[in-house]
Amino acid sequence: MSSLSADRNLPTEATALDYVRLMKPRVMSLVVFTALVGLLAAPAQMDWVTGASAVLAVALGAGAAGALNMWYDADIDALMARTVSRPVPAGMIAPADAQAFGLIVAGLSVTLMAMAANILAAVLLAFSIFFYVVIYTMWLKRSTPQNIVIGGAAGAFPPMIGWVAATGNLSVDAWILFGVIFLWTPPHFWALSLWTSGEYQRAGVPMLPVTHGAAETRRQILVYTLISVAFGLAPVATGLGGMLYLAVAILGGACFLWFAIQVYRSSAGSSDDPASLKPAKGLFGISILYLFALFMALLIEAVLPFSLPVGV
Amino acid sequence: MKDEEPIRPMTEAEAKARKRRSRWTALALFAFVILIFAITMSRLGTASLVGSQ
How confident is the model at residue B2 (pLDDT cuts 50, 70, 90)? Predict the structure, then answer.
C-alpha cells in the first residue's frame, strides 16, 4: 500500500488495529497509569463505574491527541526511521481519516469525562488535548528547541485530571503530581534525542541537540535531572507520599542522577561511535523506570492499608 | 475546474477490511451506549442515596 492511495482517500485495507496504533497505545498506557494513580491517591471516594469511566475518558483523550498528532506530523514522520511505519505515513490510514477519528474520539472523551466525573475534569482533559495538538504539535515542536520543556506539560496533565475527577478541585497535591512529570520530561526526551538528532535534523525539527549541540544537551539533561529528582521529594512534604514513596524517590532519584552524570561525562551525540550512546540509552530506560516507580509507590500507599506517613 | 478522478472499485481485501472496521465501529458505539447507561444508573443511585439521608 503506497502513501499515495491514502493521500487521495482511496479505500485502504486498514484494520481496527491500525486505528489502535494511531492512538499511540504505549504512551496511552503510561497516561492511564498516572491518571489512575492521581485518581486513587486523591482524598475522595468514587464508585468503580465512575472511576473506570474517568480513566477510560483520559485514555481516549490521550489516544485522540495521539491520532491528531500523527495526522499533523505525517510529513515529518515519513522522514524518520522511528516513525515511518506509523499508520498515516505508511499509507494505511488517510490523513483526513486520522484527523476525523482524532476529533471524534476527543469529543467523546471529554463528553464521557463530564458525564462520569465533573466539568472541571472535562475542561482539563479538553485543554490537555488542545495543548498537545495545537500548542506542542502545531506550534512549539517545529519552532523552538524548548518544545519538549513547554510541551511536556501535555503529558503532565493526566494525574492532575485523575485527581480532579475524584475530588472536583485542584489542590496543591494535584499540582505537585503535574510538576513531577513536567520536570521529568526534558531529560527523558533529550536522552532519546541524543541518538535520534540526525533524524530530527533531516525532518527540520529543532530539537536541542540539533540547535545547540550534543554537549549543551548533555549539560541540560544533568540540570533538569537534578531539578526533577529534587522535586520528586515534594509529595513527601505535603504528606501525599509516605515512607515507601520517600525510599523510592531517594533510591530511584540517585539512580536517575547517576545515569545523567554518566551521560554528561560521555560523548553521546558527539561521537560516531555507537558505543558512546550507551549511557544515553541507559538514561532513557532508567527515566521510565524512575517515573513508574514513583507513581507505583503512590499507588501502593493509596491502596494498601500498611503505608506509613513520614515522621511516624 | 478540478478534474474528477475516476473511482476505482474496491478490491476484495479492501471490502473485507471495511466490513471488519464497520463491525468494530458498531461494537465500540454499542459499548459507549452501555457505558453511558451504567454511568447514569450509578449517578441516579448516588443521588437517591444522598436524597434519602
Answer: low
